[in-house]
Amino acid sequence: MPTMSTIDPLVPLRDRILAATRAAFGDQTADADPALHRSQHADYQADLALALARKLKKNPREVASAIAAELPADDVIAGIEISGPGFINIMLRTEYLAARIEHMRADASGRLGMPPTVRADRVVIDYSGPNIAKEMHVGHLRSTIIGDSIARLLEWQGHTVIRRNHVGDWGTPFGMLIEHLLDERTAGSEAGVRELGAFYRTARRKFDDDPTFADRARRRVVLLQSGDRETLATWRRLIDTSVEHFSQLYAALGVTLAPTDVVGESAYNALLPEVVDELARKGLAHESEGAMCVFPPGFAGRDGEPVPLIIRKQDGGYGYATTDLAALRQRIGELGATRLIYVIGAPQAQHLAMLFATARLAGWTNDRTRLEHVSFGSVLGSDKKMLKTRAGDSVSLAALVSEAVARATQIVAEKSPELPADEQARIATAVGVGAIKYADLANDRVKDYVFDWTRMLAFDGNTGPYLMYAHARIRSILRKAAGAGATAGAITVDAPQERALALALVQFEGILDRAGETLQPHRICAFLYDVATAFSSFYEGCPVLKSEDGVRASRVALCEVAAQTLALGLALLGIAAPEQM
Fold first, then answer.
1. Of 215, 242, 269, which residue sits at a domain end?
2. In sequence order, which ranges of 80-170 are alpha helices (DSSP H)?
C-alpha cells in the first residue's frame, strides 16, 4: 500500500487556503470554510472571500488578494489569479497531478491508493424492511438499493457494518395467515404460500367475508402469542417461505442482505416490558389516557399539544414504537453500535426523531453515538403519482426486475449481435439491474423521481448503461493495447483532455469520504459520470494506440486508472461493470 496519506487534491488545497486565510486575517477567520469547485477558468475555484468580506467589512477582491498573497507557488499550486467579485482561481502543478494518478495506479490492492479509515465505526444499518407473507413491491425499492449502497461504501471504507433487515413478522394479521395456511394444509396442499401476494389477498378476503374464519383467526392470534407449538411451527413456515422469496429477489438485484440479516419484530417481544419499565423508572414514561407514553420535548401537534410516543397501549399491548425502541437499545447495548443508520422513507421522519430523542433521554447513547435517518422520496410514474400498475396495484419488485432484464436483453442483442447468447444474457442482466439501481441512486435521495424505462436504459446521458459502456470501452482499449505490446508507463498530463481526466480521477477519495459522511450515493454517481464524460473527451482528443511510445505508455496508464475507478465506483453502488458490451 502506498504511504501517501491522501490523493484528493482538495485536502492539501483546503489546508493551504485555511492557513493563508489565518495568516492574512488572524482569529477573525476561525470559522472560515473554503468551498472548492471546478471552474472553466482554472483547475479549482475557491469561494471564500465573499463571505469573509461581509464579516470583515472589506472589499471581496481585497480579501481574495490578501489570501492569494499568502499562497505562493509550491509543489501543489502552479499559479493563482483573482476573478470576478473575489473568486480565487487555482491552477495545480502538472507534476502534482501526474504523481497523484501514479499513486492510484501503483496500488496493487485495488483500492486506488485510498487507505481504510483510521477511525472505524461499528455501524448497524437498517434497510429494506419488507413484511412477512407479503410480496415485495416497488415501495421497497429505494430502501433496499440506497441502504445496500451505503452498507457497501461504509464496509469498503473500513467500518464494521452490521446489516439489519427489520421485517414485520408479528401481530394480528398473522392469525388469518396461519389459519389460511392450515386450511390449505388440510386440503392437501401448501402451494399457495409460495405466491405471497395471492396468498395474502386470499387470506384477507376470507377474513373479511367469512365470520367463522375471522373468529378462528382471532383465536389463532391468542395461540400464537401464548406460544402454541403447532401455531408457532406454522408461523415459522410462513417466515421461512417469505425469507426465501426475499433472498431470491436480493440475489437478482445484487443486494448483499442475507437470511441471517433478517431480524423480525418478534425477536424483541421479550424485551418490550423491560423497555417500558426502564423508561418509567427513569421518569420518562407516564400514563396518559390509559396508555404509557413518552413525551420527548420539542414535538407538538397542530394544536400545540405535546405529541406522545405510545410505548404501551390502553389494552396492555405494545406497538411498533416499543419494538423500535427495543431494537435501538439492543443495537447499542449488545451489538456495540456507534453509528445507527435507518434507511426509511421521509414520512417516518417524526417517528424516528422521537425514537432518537427518547434514546438520548434514556442515556442509551453517548457523545460518539450517531443516530441517523436516511430519508428518501417516492418512485413516481409518468403521471407524477406513485408508481402503480394499470390496475392500480403496487408494482411487484420481482416483475420490475424481470421487465428490466427483458428490455435490456433486446437492447444488448441489437447492439452486440456478435456476442454468444450466454454472454448477451449475462450482460443484459447486468444492464437491466444496473439501470434500475443507478436511476434510483443518481437522484438526490430526498427527492421523488419519475421511473422512465427509456431514459434509464439509454446508453447516453447520466445512466447506468452509459457508465457501464464507458468502462467496457476502456477495457477494450486496454485489451488492444496488450495485444499490440503497449504497456503502461510514466504518466504525463500535458494535453488539456489528459489534464481534465486526471482532475476528475483524483477527486475519488474526497467524493467517497463525503458520500460516507453524508450518506448520499448520488455524489458517487455524479463523480462517475464526470469521469466517463472526461474520458470520452480524452478518447476523442488523445489517441492512445497510435501515439508515440512515451505518450502511449502514459495514456495506457490513464486508461487503466479510469477503468479501475469506474469499476470500483460502480461496485460500491452495487452495479456490475462488464468487461465488454
1. 242
2. 94-105, 141-157
**Number of domains observed in the structure of the chain:** 2
Q: For residue range 4-15, list pLDDT tens digits in order.
A: 445 677 777 888
| DSSP helix/strand/coil, 453 | helix
Residue 223 counted as domain residue: yes
Interval 573-580 mean pLDDT: 96
Higher pLDDT: 37 or 214? It is 214
Task: Please indicate, yes or no, if residue 532 is contained in any of the structural domains.
Answer: no
- Centre a 10 Å sphere on the Cβ of residue 117 and count the other Cβ atoms it contains: 14
List the grid coordinates of 297: 420535548
Q: Which residue has the cell 481534465?
A: 500
Q: What cell does 94 get?
A: 502538472
Does the pLDDT at position 440 exceed 60?
A: yes
pTM, two decimal places: 0.93
511 belongs to a structural domain:
no
Amino acid at residue number 62: E
Mean pLDDT across 129-144: 93
Domain limits at 69? 10-92
Work out whether strand 339-343 and strand 370-374 pair parallel, antiparallel, or are unpaired: parallel
Instruction: Considering only residues 506 and 6, tell me which one the structure prediction assigns the higher pLDDT.
Output: 506
Q: Are strands 285-288 and 291-294 parallel, antiparallel or unpaired?
A: antiparallel
Kindly give the pairing relationship between strand 449-450 and strand 379-380.
parallel
3-state secondary structure at position 462 = coil
The secondary element (H helix, E strand) that includes residue 172 is none
Q: Are 574 and 435 in contact (CB under 8 A)?
A: no
- Final residue of a structural domain among 187, 210, 242: 242
Looking at the DSSP bridge assignments, the partners of residue 262 are 165
Can you tell me the distance from the alpha carbon of 332 to that of 364, in angstroms, rounded to the nearest whole number? Answer: 7
286-324 pLDDT per residue, tens: 999 999 999 999 999 888 899 999 999 998 889 899 999
Confidence class for position 27, pLDDT limits 50, 70, 90: confident
Query: Checking DSSP bridges between strand 44-47 and strand 87-92, what pairing results, if any?
Result: antiparallel
Cell of 216: 378462528
Distance, in Å, from the CA atom of 452 to the CA atom of 434, rounded to the nearest integer, reads 14
Using pLDDT thresholds of 50, 70 and 90, give the confidence band for residue 196.
Answer: confident
> Is the residue at 209 inside a domain?
yes
Instruction: Please give the helix or strand (H or E) that residue 79 lies within, else none.
Output: strand 77-83
d(CA 347, CA 142): 14
Q: Can you tell me the distance from the alpha carbon of 237 to that of 323, in angstroms, rounded to the nearest whole number?
A: 23
Statement: residue 197 has pLDDT above 90: no
